C-alpha cells in the first residue's frame, strides 16, 4: 500500500541520547536497545471513519520515538498496518449503503492527508490486511498443523487459537483473568461463543458469511482474517521477532497486543524453536477526552483532524496542542488547549525570525534530554518556551546562529515546522 510523503528532516549538530520508554510488559520505563536499524510496529487504523484527535495523539507519540531514534543515529524501519477488512468497516458500509472497498479507500486517503499535514514521518512498510491474506492464511495453516489452533465444530469454518497452549499468554498486559474477560467482551471478543475450548481463545479466521466478502482460507475454507493474526503476520514478515517497540493506544493493551504477541511467538517457536518476546517493549499512548469522556467512535464524541484543517487551523498548532500533554496521561481536548498552542506557535515563529537569539546549545541539549526521557514532550516544549522568551526579550547572551539552529531542532525533534526560518541556515552558510 502507498504510504505518505516524508517531511524534510533537518540534521542537527551532535547526536541525541538513548531513548527510554515505558514498557507495559515490564511495568516500568526502560532504555530501548535498537541495533543500527531500530524496528517499530504501530497498529494502524480501521478505515471506516476519519482520523480523530485520539488517533492523532497516538501516531504523534510514536513519531517522537522515530525522531529521537534518528537523531541518535539510527535508521528506523517503521511498519504500520491498515485493517482494511474487519467487522466495523463492513458494519459502517452496510449502515451507509456504501461499498466497503470505496469506504476503506476514501478514509485511508484522508488518513494519509492528515498524517502528511501533521508532519508524521511515514512508515517504510504500510501494509493492508487484504493484501496480507495469503501470508495470514499460511500462518494459520502452521498453527493448525502444530495443533495450536482448531476449527470450530459448527460448520462456520471459524478457526481459533488454543490459548491454553500459549505459555506467554498474559505477559504483555499482565492482567488477571477477570480483567481479560471483561476487556475481551468489551473490545470485540466472544467469550461466550459455544464450542470454543476456552472463553479467551481468539478468532484467527472467520468463515464466510452470506453477503460478506471472503477469500480462500486455511483448510480450503473461504472467509476473512482476524485482526490480531493480521498484525502478527505483517510484523513477522517485515521486521521479524524481537523488534524494539510495539505501539498503539492504551485500548490495544488487551486483547489486541496480547494476542498478536502470542500468535507470533507460537509461529516463531513452531518455525525455529526460537522463543519470544514478539517486541522488546510494548508502548501505549493514553486516550484523548472531550467533555469528560474518552474520545471514541462508539461514543460519537469525535473531533476530526480533517475538520479542524478544513476550518483553517494550522496543523502545527494541532500537533503542539496534542504534544503539550504527556503521551501516557489521559487528557482532554479543549478550545483553550488549541488557543494556547496557537499562541505558542506564534511566539516561537516570532523568536526564530529574530536576527539573533539566546544560546542554542542548551535548547538542543534540553530537547534531547527531555524527549529521550520517556518522550517528555511537555518538558521539551517548556525548554523552547524559555528560549523564545529570552530571545524575544533580547536580554542576556545572544548568538547569531541560534534562531536557525533552534528552528531546525524544533522541526527535527518535535516535528513542528516554524516555516519562516526554514531557508535561513543554508543561505547564511552559503
Ligand atoms: Zn495491530
Order of helices and strands: EEEHEHHEHEEHEEHEHEEEHHEHHHHH
The average pLDDT score comes to 95
CATH top level of the largest domain is Alpha Beta
Give the low-pLDDT segments: 422-430
Q: What ligands are attached or bound here?
A: zinc ion
**How large is the count of helical segments?**
14
CATH superfamily of the largest domain: HUPs
In the CATH classification, which architecture of the largest domain applies? Answer: 3-Layer(aba) Sandwich
The total beta strand count reads: 14
Structural class: alpha/beta
Beta-strand residue percentage: 5-15%
Distance between the termini: 40 Å
How many structurally independent domains? 2
Share in helix: 40-55%
Radius of gyration: 23 Å
> What is the CATH topology assignment of the largest domain?
Rossmann fold
Provide the spatial order of strands within the biggest beta sheet: 5-4-3-10-11
* Main sheet: strands, sense, barrel: 5 strands, parallel
| Morphology | elongated
Motif ('HIGH' region): 45-55
Binding site for L-cysteinyl-5'-AMP: 43-46, 58, 81-83, 227, 249-251, 288
EC number: 6.3.1.13
Motif ('ERGGDP' region): 186-191
How is this structure best described in words?
With 430 residues, the protein is an alpha/beta fold. The protein has two domains: 20-285, HUPs (Rossmann fold); 314-414, Up-down Bundle (Four Helix Bundle (Hemerythrin (Met), subunit A)), CATH 1.20.120. Helix content is 43%, strand content 14%. The chain has 14 helices and 14 strands. It has helices at 53-71, 87-96, 100-117, 133-145, 177-186, 227-238, 253-272, 305-310, 315-323, 335-352, 361-372, 377-393, 402-414, 424-429, and strands at residues 20-23, 28-31, 37-42, 75-82, 125-128, 149-151, 159-161, 203-207, 223-225, 243-249, 279-285, 288-290, 293-294, 331-332. A hairpin with a 2-residue loop joins β12 and β13 (293-294). The longest helix is centred in the middle third of the chain and has 20 residues, at 253-272. The two termini are 40 Å apart. Zinc ion is lined by residues 43, 81, 231, 256, 260. It catalyses: 1D-myo-inositol 2-amino-2-deoxy-alpha-D-glucopyranoside + L-cysteine + ATP = 1D-myo-inositol 2-(L-cysteinylamino)-2-deoxy-alpha-D-glucopyranoside + AMP + diphosphate + H(+). It holds the Pfam family tRNA-synt_1e. Residues 190-199 have a biased composition (Basic and acidic residues).
Amino acid at each position: 500500500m502507498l504510504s505518505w510523503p516524508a517531511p524534510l528532516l533537518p540534521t542537527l549538530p551532535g547526536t541525541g541520547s538513548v531513548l527510554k520508554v515505558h514498557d507495559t510488559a515490564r511495568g516500568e520505563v526502560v532504555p530501548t536497545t535498537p541495533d543500527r536499524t531500530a524496528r517499530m510496529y504501530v497498529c494502524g487504523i480501521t478505515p471506516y471513519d476519519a482520523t480523530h484527535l485520539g488517533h492523532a495523539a497516538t501516531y504523534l507519540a510514536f513519531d517522537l520515538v522515530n525522531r529521537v531514534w534518528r537523531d541518535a543515529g539510527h535508521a528506523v524501519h517503521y511498519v504500520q498496518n491498515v485493517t482494511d477488512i474487519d467487522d466495523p468497516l463492513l458494519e459502517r458500509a452496510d449502515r451507509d449503503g456504501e461499498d466497503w472497498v470505496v469506504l476503506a479507500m476514501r478514509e485511508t486517503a484522508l488518513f494519509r492527508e492528515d498524517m502528511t499535514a501533521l508532519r508524521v514521518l511515514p512508515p517504510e512498510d504500510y501494509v493492508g490486511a487484504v493484501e496480507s491474506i495469503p501470508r495470514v492464511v499460511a500462518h494459520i495453516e502452521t498453527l493448525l498443523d502444530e495443533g495450536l489452533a482448531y476449527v470450530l465444530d459448527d460448520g462456520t469454518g471459524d478457526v481459533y487459537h488454543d490459548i491454553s497452549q500459549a505459555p506467554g499468554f498474559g505477559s504483555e498486559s499482565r492482567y488477571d483473568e477477570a480483567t481479560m474477560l471483561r476487556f475481551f467482551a468489551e473490545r470485540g471478543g466472544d467469550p461466550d461463543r459455544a464450542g470454543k475450548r476456552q472463553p479467551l481463545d481468539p478468532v484467527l479466521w472467520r468463515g464466510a458469511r452470506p453477503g460478506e466478502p471472503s477469500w480462500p482460507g486455511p483448510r480450503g475454507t473461504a472467509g476473512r482474517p482476524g485482526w490480531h493474526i493480521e498484525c502478527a503476520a505483517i510484523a513477522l514478515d517485515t521486521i521479524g521477532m524481537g523488534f524494539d517497540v510495539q505501539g498503539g493506544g492504551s485500548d490495544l493493551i488487551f486483547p489486541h497486543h496480547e494476542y498478536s504477541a502470542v500468535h507470533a511467538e507460537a509461529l516463531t517457536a513452531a518455525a525455529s524453536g526460537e522463543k519470544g518476546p514478539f517486541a522488546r517493549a510494548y508502548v501505549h499512548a493514553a486516550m484523548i477526552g472531550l467533555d469528560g469522556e474518552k474520545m471514541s467512535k462508539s461514543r460519537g464524541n469525535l473531533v476530526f483532524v480533517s475538520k479542524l484543517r478544513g476550518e483553517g487551523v494550522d496543523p502545527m498548532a494541532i500537533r503542539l496542542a496534542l504534544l503539550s500533554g504527556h503521551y501516557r496521561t489521559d487528557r482532554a481536548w479543549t478550545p483553550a488547549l488549541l488557543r494556547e498552542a496557537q499562541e505558542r506557535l506564534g511566539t516561537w515563529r516570532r523568536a526564530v525570525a529574530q536576527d539573533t537569539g539566546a544560546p542554542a546549545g542548551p535548547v538542543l541539549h534540553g530537547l534531547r534530554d527531555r524527549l529521550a526521557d520517556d518522550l517528555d514532550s511537555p518538558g521539551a516544549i517548556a525548554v523552547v518556551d524559555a528560549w523564545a522568551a529570552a530571545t524575544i526579550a533580547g536580554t542576556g547572551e545572544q548568538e547569531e546562529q541560534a534562531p536557525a539552529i533552534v528552528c531546525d531542532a524544533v522541526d527535527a525533534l518535535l516535528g513542528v515546522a516554524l516555516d519562516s526560518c526554514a531557508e535561513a541556515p543554508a543561505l547564511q552558510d552559503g
